Amino acid sequence: MRDMMDDTTIWDSTKYNIPVHSGTVGVGGGGGNGGLNPKNHERGGSFSCNSTEENNAVTWAQQQLYLAKLTLRNSNAFTLPKPAHELLRRKAASKLRSALLRGVRQANRNDPKRAKNKPPPLAYERWAARDVLRRTTTELLLPSSGVVDPALARDLSRHTMRGADAQALATSLADEAKTAADALKTNTENEEERKQERIYCTKCGAEMLAVALGAPEAKPYFTVSDAHYKKLKMLYDDNEGSDDEQAFLRALFCLLCRYDALGGAGYQCALPNKCFDAMRKAVCANGECFASPLNCRTHAYCSAFPDTDGAFGSAGSFRNFYPEFGSFEANPIFVPETMSMMATHCESLLEAAEQGKPGKYDDGNTSKAEDKKQKHCGKPRSLSFCVVVPVWKECKFYGALMRSAFRRGEPIVLSAEHHVYVDGAQHARPSSERERPSSYDTAIFFLQTKRASDRWPCGEEQRVAIRQAFAGDILAKAKSSAGASSTVGEPQLQWSRVYKKKKVKR
Asked: I need a surface site. Which of 64, 164, 455, 483 has the fewest CB within 10 A?
């Protein structure tokens, strides 16, 4: 979720032999939308790479994500929720937030010093993010594991309420969340009700659209910019190949509803497009490990919600992604437990690539899958992660990244005042309101296998380019405040899908 790119541009994956139509997910399929696009595959679904290093990096990263996407589409996790059911999920999340606030106020009602206290900012969002890591249920939004979260109790007791009261509230919320999730399972719609769910998309302002269920003026409605609407339509068409406008609008409504219910736009901030482009040019980081359909820069990426995001190209959660090779960018939500999961998973993937262990995915040529695994077994592979995290040195994830055997050089450290992020709710904001200052210093780590470090070096030249990209928006703002015309925050739309290739300087 966190590395939701701020640009509405989609890179031209078709120029690099990356299939974008998935249809019925028949790998190596025939014509139409079934299987891989016949223009982009050979020998029943295998992939080919072009000669330049940057071209290879694009192909390799997107190939691995595309294969993960095919696996996802063959699973139950891909089932799109119904709009009315998604509204019930959003309502349940809102009730849990209210229960958290009410619990804090009730616990402190007899304490004059604490009577006006509120839950810490993003306490609910952090609890939900941690709960994702411990539950195995199909519920993806509500913190429904039923396990009492000790970190939530600590969050509440630190500044808001007494320790015993905080523990009691955390216990009560865990039970309430599980009950809410169980109720959603039993509240299902029949096919006739689903057909009556008509979605309306109407203009609301100079560059915004309103998406509503049942009637144009119905509430709640969700806003999306014209630019993001066009991008999402492109992603949907590439993945579903459907001309059914209502099917697209239903998927769009569920997507917007889910991310509105998720909340926490501040902790889902994105990298400015110049920064992401700088990483791509420096170390060919072309795969996104923490993105969303609203902010992704490629046709295939990892995201938090495979059910709502799958129709727009998601390959599922990074936790369930097992790339063998390629260069990726990882910018997770700023929750310590999520960043620890990322660090552990990256380390495991890099060890497997360095040792040449057999991968999880094959290229669709099932008759030769075992031969290919034997052929590549024991041979080191090129795998790289460009990791963007806050400088929280006291947290476990930071120590794990610093101790990694695959860390190449010292991390780039950017002071908070020298860079900005893009708001996590950029799709629902005018272009002039998309940026927000960074709250913390930021560190950029380069984790690479030996072959990847030789292929995509992260030397001083690359580091300087990345630093300059992060500082670029600050300089632009300074110039605009001095009277220069400002285009900071404007999406650079490239709907012709033109991608200018540049070789990495060595």
From this structure: 483
